[in-house]
Amino acid sequence: MSKLKIAVQKSGRLNEDSMKILKDIGISIDNGKDQLKASARNFPLEIFYLRNGDIPQYLKDGVVDVAIIGENVLIEKGNDIKVAEKLGFSSCKVSVAVPKGATYNSVKDLEGKRIATSYPNTVNQFLDKNKVSAKLHIINGSVEIAPNIGLADAIVDIVSSGSTLFKNGLKEVEVILKSEAVLAVSPKISAENQKLLEKIQFRIQSVLKGQN
Ligand code: PRP
Ligand code: MG
Q1: Signal sequence: where (predicted)?
Q2: How far is the CA of 168 from the centre of ligand 2 (A)?
């Protein structure tokens, strides 16, 4: 019998809530996070623990059928990947921030500036829309350090509680987008696995309804 292949974040902010929602919908998983792949005991489901940034490509290629992932990652890398369900957790923003003391009146103030980010496509779209050109420094993590070490004038990164910005002496000046965890679907999902997905979605909808 066919199994639905689902990707979840291996470690990081989404991991815990992703595992919780699977538990809430009654799925019990054979082993913990040490393995990169696990099976559900009571549903035809295989769980793949993957790096966030790799998940959109796995969905595009049909290596996995579905994924629990931040909308912001899909927007950055996913383009044609469909969202089946918004999951109501891990809300965050993707925002522009500058040093607390910097003058910032409008997006035009970014003209010619150096922006550090892990979300180049999102930033470029935002800059294009506003007809501003800037120089991007692409870094994979700890982006908020960049202005302090003289690498950038501004950053674009995820803001959740705002504490990382605060600790690094930065202020949020633009919200580019708002995001939450979603259930994303591969364009290559088989008809058989689509049926399994519908069962999972039905259970998720019941759980989400119960929370409101
Ligand atoms: C994420 C994100 C921000 C921070 C936002 O970083 O890149 O830096 O969390 O959360 P906050 O507003 O609640 O402080 P993470 O700690 O996951 O590490 P990384 O940037 O090194 O991947
Ligand atoms: Mg960070």
Answers
A1: none
A2: 11
